[in-house]
Amino acid sequence: MREVQVDAIRDAVEKLFIEANYELPEDVIGRFKDALGEEESPVGREVIEELLLNARIARDERIPICQDTGLAILFMEIGQDVHITGGDLEEAATEGVRRAYKKGYLRKSACDPFTRTNTGDNTPPILHVRIAPGERIRLIAMPKGGGSENYSEVRMLTPSEGAEGVKRFVLEMVQKAGPNPCPPITVGIGIGGNFETSALLSKEALMLPFGKRNNDPLLRDLELSILGDVNKLGIGPEGYGGSVTALDLHIKARPCHIASLPVAVNIQCHAHRIKEATI
Amino acid sequence: MEMKRITTPLSDGVIEELKAGDKVLLSGTIYTARDAAHKRFIDTLRAGGSLPFEIEGQVVYYCGPSPVLPGRAIGAAGPTTSGRMDVYTPTLLSLGLKGMIGKGKRSQAVKDAIVKHKAIYFGATGGAGALLSKAVVSYEVVAYGELGPEAVARLVVKDLPLFVINDTAGDDLYEMGMSGYRR
Questions:
Q1: Does residue A137 form part of some domain?
Q2: Given A65, A68, A180, which is nearest B83 (Cβ)?
């Protein structure tokens, strides 16, 4: 049994959300550079060059990558041999987010659904907690903007619609979103489970590294097939037209009810901000 | 790519020369307003009140910047999705609003109002908030300060890089661009 103070978790959460908003991950920058070679449209390439420049300015001059510094999504994988002491875990994580958004000059984007009154400190965060083997705590911070999240949806397909139905749904969503979610996008697809697990799977699919394909050959082929078709839509970087509409597309799947085929599509903007730490 | 340099306020003559797909560097005074501010504008007008700034001839930027950084004019300052403002936009265009800066598609009603009132819709690169912030010379909240990032602010910008999306001829860069690369 290993003891971990909640203060250590709070401080790590604070650091992660600040870093995530100022430093675009190296693999995203690498993917932009590859996309420069893939993009057929001169305007599209110009946009990708701007995104590379933006990432450099953000990191070197300490300006957030995007003004929408997101709702704070935090995944916590807690080792079952860890004993958390010194306070309430959820409060500590929330305080970490509060401090990050204040100290990091990050925008507070959380508000009441109807009065639209801003909560003032970007809390509450979206917390996902899972128990894992071992005695470590893994924290993954993913600040996510509203513009891309708005083009996400869960749909309960009928089993007869199958893989073709999933493909139709994804293409419909990407087409409908067009330039709005700041392409080139990354698409996360969650298939199976039930209503809420499909949504969570689609978010987890976004967290997979670029180029990582599903181990199941059928799902791997489906990923490549949908990605190919998404990039034939012509939307392109910022929607100005082009051949790189999506940087990647991942599927996560699990068994579902014999009556159901739940599918969730979660769209991520090009500013794919994610940072993790292990305590 | 050739760039047109334009300065606010925008005259009908300047607007009519702008075509969908043009790259523009915009300088001068503009105002930020997004979801909550637009709702207040329309509620205020319905109640017989007046807007917190003279809208005739102005350009509105759909932007809720991140907090002002030490030693800088503003925080990150990119555009938000314009479509959410579509329900309010034709009214503002009928009152003389001349330009809008944002990202993403507009409704047919907005595109029609752009043609009718000789206005223009520009796209700024979404998600390039750090880069775009460098074109902001000054930032001053002028109304609805209690809305925080959604307050109305007066910005002075220098060479803000934009694309013309919807022009007075009814053309749309998104439709033009997409059709060229659809397979």
A1: yes
A2: A180
Q: Note the pLDDT tens digit of each residue in B111-143.
A: 999 999 999 999 999 999 999 999 999 999 999
A104 in B contact zone (CB under 8 Å): no
Residue among B137, B130, B34 at smallest CA distance from B76? B130
Q: Report pTM.
A: 0.95
pLDDT, residue B2, reads 77
- Containing structural domain, residue B161: 3-181
Total count of domains within chain A: 2
Q: Are A130 and A75 in contact (CB under 8 A)?
A: yes
Give the end of a domain, one of A111, A144, A177: A144
Statement to judge: residues A73 and A122 lie in one domain? yes
| Contact assignment for B81 to A69 by CB distance below 8 Å | no
Quick one: A121 and A204 in the same domain?
A: no
Does residue A14 belong to any structural domain of this protein? Answer: yes
CB-based contact, A43 to chain B, within 8 Å: yes
How far lies B6's CA from each of A50, A247, B25, B103, B120, in Å?
21, 34, 6, 19, 12
For chain A, give the mean pLDDT. 97
Do both A12 and A82 map to the same domain? yes
For residue A230, the tally of other CB atoms under 10 A from its CB is 24
What pLDDT, on a 0 to 100 scale, did the predictor assign at position A130?
96
Question: What mean pLDDT, rounded, does chain B reach?
Answer: 96
A13 close to A127: Cβ distance less than 8 angstroms? no
Instruction: Determine, for residues A64 and B75 on separate chains, whether the beta-carbon distance falls below 8 Å.
Output: yes
Please list the residues that pair with A2 across neighbouring strands.
A82
Structure tokens at B116: 């009718």
What average pLDDT does range A160-180 have in this prediction?
97
Spell out which residues of chain B touch residue A147, defining contact as CB-CB under 8 Å.
Answer: 80-81, 103-104, 126
Q: Does residue A124 have a cis bond before it (omega within 30 degrees)?
A: yes
Percent of all residues in chain A with a pLDDT value above 90, rounded to a whole number: 99
Chain A residues within an 8 Å CB radius of B86: none
Which CATH number does the domain housing residue B177 bear? Answer: 3.20.130.10
Question: Are residues A236 and A107 part of one domain?
Answer: no
> What pLDDT sits at residue B71?
95
The ipTM is: 0.94
Last residue of some domain: A116, A144, A172? A144
